[in-house]
User: What shape does this take?
Amino acid sequence: MSIDFLAIAPEIALTVTALIVLAADLALRGEAKQLVNPIAAIGTVVAIVFTVILYGSERVTFGTMFVVDDYAVVFKLLFLGTLLAILGISWRFFAEGRYFQGEYYFLLLTAFIGMLIMPSARDLLLLFVALETVSIPAFVMAGMRKRDLYSSEAALKFFLIGVLSVALMLFGMSLVYGFTGSTDLVEIAAALDGETASVPLLLGSVMLVIVGFGFKVSAVPFHFWAPDTYAGAPMPVAAMLAVASKAAGFAGLIAIAFIAFEPVADVWGPVLGILAIITMTIGNLIALQQRDLIRLLAYSSVAQAGYMLIPFGLARTGSTAVNEAAVQAVLFYLVAYAVMNIGAFGVAIAVNRRTGLRSIRDYAGLASRNTLLGLGMTVFMLSLGGAPLTVGLWAKFAILQAVAVEITLFGVILAGFLVLNSVIAFFYYLRVVKTIWMDEAREGMPALQPGFNLSVVVVILMAGTVLLGVLPGLVTDYSSVVSLLATS
Amino acid sequence: MDPNTAGWALVVALFLPLVGAGLLSLMPAAMDQQIRRAAVVITTVAFALVAVITASFDYGRSGELQFTTDVSWITAIDARFSLGMDGISLPLFFLTYLLPVLCAIYTTKHLPSPGKPKAFLGLMMVLQTGMAGTFVAFDLVLFFIFFELTLVPMFFMIGMWGGPRRDYASVKFFLYTLFGSVFMLVAFLAIYFQAGASTWSIMELSEMAPFGSSTFQTWAFLGVFLGFAIKVPVWPFHTWLPDAHTEAPTVGSVLLAGVLLKMGTYGFIRIGLPILPEGALRFAPLIGVLAVIGIVYGSLCCLAQTDVKRLIAFSSVGHMGFVMLGIAAMNEAGIQAALFGNIAHGIITGMLFFLAGSLHERYHSREISVIGGGMLTKIPKYGVMFAYVAIASLGLPGLAGFWGEFTAMWAAISPGLGLADSYQGLYLTLVIFAAIGTVLTAGYFLWLLQRVNLGKPPERWANEPLDDVQAIEWVSWTPLLILILALGVYPRLLFGVQNDAVANLVSFLG
Assistant: This one.
């Protein structure tokens, strides 16, 4: 068996970079240690170049385990773009705090290797390995503020719930293997298709596998770790968990749900749909009560996961048009979500870095203290809410569009919850916006020094939010070309 | 300018305020006066362009779309960047460019705390683009974007420059209207998929109508209804309006009453009726009932108000009730009346809010009891002006307020599309109650005039030097005062422009 090295070139590039970062950390001393950040960024750019080269080609390697198609490429670009942004907002945070920078960047890159594998994996085992490659470094990263009890609590909580759900998932996978005799997603689908009578145990094991991903995307009731972990972890790590790790979870869930378990979509579809309703409603209602911005963002990210689960609720066995639209809606939402949420975390890092302030009240008068950050946060908050001329509106639009492909009562109920929740969510997003612009800044606040990298990231993401808000075609036209299901 | 080919003129006019807002944001904040003057220049240039467009509009073909632009925008969902204007759009579009000029002129001297003219005027211009776009967008998605674009700047205008309860009022305004528009968006999507023609074009969908089952028409119209009825606002969805108006800065109130509310009635006429005629027909009696409740309820509330500005806000509920009554009549005269009432209310109530703002600057209160009367002797020019506009608002023949209300009632006596057969009694009752409403309206306005204008000024004001109408106020108010009279004595000015377009629209209703 020969290995198609070009197909895994992005992963190789990141692996090499990760090792260089580790070695460089040993070689560099003192101030120079922060140079590992640009090294990591260069490695990321190389990986992006390889990924772009792969666009348009169709490559299969490691048997049929690893597939590179346009769908995977779009996901990989999303991850790598996110990585670049996170590197940008990490630099000062980790250089100025007393952190082991080499370790952090090594772990970060490792987690992203797992993410890159995720959308390409077409085998239960490879999916599991990818998921663990994302999770295990993340457990460690969440606890990087070693002298902070909250950080340790964050890591421990994350670890325990994470391991539990992975154990459940692995158990489910073993049962699925027992039934179908294969770990290959396409073969599983074929075997499930042949199954005429519904076997409760089989359906149960399908649900177990899905639960594992539910943890990763922080769907209610598997979300309990998220707020505590986001609040305790170093903020760039929280941004990574809220965006990249969640997107990886969705990449895996899409592959499992729409390829392997498509024949039983009529069973898991409604379950995930109800999960979507619960997730967005509970996420939003709890977010209303938050006074800490990071916790607010955490619950908002739970709610956003709920929105992204809606298309899964629409899935139906054998209805390619519906499923295709569902996958595209999730993909577009993830891109939009990444752009606006990393931006929000970026601003939060700039405000928090020197002072440790994180209450929403500490954002009072942010616009008058630093117009760029105030404007940025405003754009990101409005976009998360789904205001016009921001990409957030089109993300919700894409989901409604998927609902409308084939109108069903359940779909209409899902859409109804989406729009109601959007209104509820605006309440807390607007509160942040109002605080930024309308409340007086407190006396004696130190000057904000976001730093060059972070400012660039915020400006780019802000521009992206508005540009995609005016011309969503830049991504929608592109993602509609990308078809996961036609290839499977 | 050739109305058939000069689509660019409309695009330029539409985005000029937005670009202007960008230019303003680049000016250093310390250049306070220059910023205010720049805003006057920008809005005036935009207005001049719209005046040229208005002059070169082909009134012989006012039923057809002119100054059209139609380019592909989001191909994945078939949304197009489609602009145009006909006789229905033109007057509203014109008003959307006139009022900001007057507001900018007014702002050169008057700006509530915390000042910040750059942000204030910038937001006003963003708002202007949103409002203007609503009236010329002929693609449902584009329409929705412009419709929603107005929320954010208005939220900030109320929330930053508003009165003591601005926090509550701004959030209530935002969430309430957002609540309506998300259902409108869902209805738009339903329309798109039900029509199945891969188009969001308002004109094409109108020509295709009616489509879908009657259940679909009902539900879709309900969604559209929620979106627009909250914006208008139709009773019982009006509760955000008094709060928003009372707390908003003067300019915000003027634009809110002058243009923003009109987007709701315009939406009913442009989208609700022609695309969902069966649904509209089914809802028409209900709309009529709600409209008349609004008229009577609005005037009763006015009788109970002690704050001049809040009183004017409630009078808006009543006046918009007449507009909705015209729509509920579902015939040409009714729609003509609704559109006339729209413009007349925009001018008159916009002007009343200007006056209420100035009242506050003089008396530092808007409480009727604090003012205590005697304006005619204390500040005679202002008093006369106030009386003139109030009388126009109560619908005196010869001034603009009369035609919308009179025609609406006249049209509702014989509603169109078979409504006359099944609901004749209901509509007659509605007209009777609406007529009672006009009496009440006259009642509360005359009572208001009696309390603030007549009599002797109370002691605390008797020796206080109060300014009469200032030069800057003359400049920004005169155009509205003239328009009130002009539309009153020569209503053809509007009816004539709208005639063909309305006839065309009614032909879609079947």
Summary: Strands of chain A lie at 59-61, 66-68.
